[in-house]
């Protein structure tokens, strides 16, 4: 039902906790893909040592390219499997709670029957910096509708990913996107400065300003993101622990 893709670079301890939580807490059919961005800390060896024989597909890049090429490669490989309905992207400092994926998929499919909001992406991560547009309950579960979600845990049907296509590898100024990408106003990286602005559910001022992605950008997906808080948590809370140099605002 779901293909899960993880990007990683030199964070084998976080990654192993992430993988272990997925293997332990996922109770719907899934396949797991891991893209390693030329790690030098023994990530590959550690994965083989701990998870050999668990059906994980490993994609190893020999030269560090950054998070965006990693995401694109995961999506390509996942789609090529041609037998799953959803693609879920997770970063390596994420741990998932019991039943997380069943809840996400179940609520997503339930709300499609009676919701006033067309939803593209959905997530188990409530990022406080992304404002809530609507809050409601679906089958007793609290759900937030937003216009963007943080790119640490995102899931959507393939028809939605097709509308987005590959994430561009360069910024409007020609610099490489996501490696390290343009800085945020506070000097940090990530949190929307590279990948989040493209992988969003709604084009609107303050979320996806028309023209900000380049003169030829005409995307207007016109959908909301749906968040079910508390299904995933994050380990790299400090700026120093982040591959991309940004602090995680959500405490465990």
What does this structure look like?
With about 250 residues, the protein is α/β, with parallel strands linked by helices. The chain has a single domain (about 1-235), classed as Alpha-Beta Complex (Spore Coat Polysaccharide Biosynthesis Protein SpsA, Chain A), CATH 3.90.550.10. The chain is about 25% helix and about 25% strand. It is built from five helices and eleven strands; from the N terminus they run E-H-E-H-E-H-E-E-H-E-E-E-E-H-E-E. The strands form three sheets. The protein has a five-stranded mixed β-sheet with strand order 3-2-1-4-9. A four-stranded mixed β-sheet has the order 6-10-8-7, with helices on one face. Strand 7 and strand 8 (about 140-145) form a beta hairpin. Mean pLDDT is about 75; it is low at about 190-200 and about 200-220.
What order do the SSEs take from the amino end to the carboxyl end, as H and E? Answer: EHEHEHEEHEEEEHEE
CATH class: Alpha Beta
Query: Any guess at the CATH architecture?
Result: Alpha-Beta Complex
N-end to C-end Cα span: 28 Å
Question: How much β-strand is present in the residues?
Answer: 15-25%
**Total domains:** 1
The fold-level CATH name is: Spore Coat Polysaccharide Biosynthesis Protein SpsA, Chain A
CATH superfamily: Spore Coat Polysaccharide Biosynthesis Protein SpsA, Chain A
In a few lines, what is going on in this structure?
By secondary structure, this protein is an alpha/beta fold. The chain has five helices and eleven strands.
């Amino acid at each position: 039902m779901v293909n899960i893709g993880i990007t990683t670079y030199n964070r084998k301890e976080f990654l192993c906790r992430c993988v272990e939580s997925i293997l332990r807490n996922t109770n719907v059919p899934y396949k797991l893909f891991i893209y390693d961005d030329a790690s030098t800390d023994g990530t590959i060896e550690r994965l083989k040592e701990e998870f050999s024989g668990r059906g994980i597909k490993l994609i190893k890049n020999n030269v560090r390219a950054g998070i965006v090429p990693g995401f694109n490669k995961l999506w390509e490989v996942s789609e090529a499997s041609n037998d799953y309905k959803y693609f879920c992207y997770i970063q390596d400092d994420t741990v998932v709670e019991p039943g997380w994926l069943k809840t996400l998929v179940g609520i997503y499919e339930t709300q499609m029957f009676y919701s006033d909001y067309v939803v593209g992406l959905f997530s188990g991560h409530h990022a406080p910096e992304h404002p809530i547009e609507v809050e409601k309950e679906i089958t007793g579960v609290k759900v937030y509708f937003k216009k963007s979600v943080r790119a640490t845990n995102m899931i959507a049907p393939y028809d939605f990913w097709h509308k987005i296509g590959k994430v561009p590898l360069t910024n409007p100024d020609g610099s490489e996107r996501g490696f390290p990408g343009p800085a945020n106003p506070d000097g940090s990286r990530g949190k929307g400065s590279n990948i989040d602005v493209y992988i969003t559910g709604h084009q609107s001022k303050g979320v996806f300003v028309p023209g900000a992605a380049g003169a030829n950008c005409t995307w207007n997906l016109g959908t909301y993101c749906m968040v079910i808080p508390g299904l995933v948590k994050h380990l790299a809370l400090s700026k120093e622990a982040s591959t991309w140099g940004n602090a995680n605002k959500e405490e465990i």
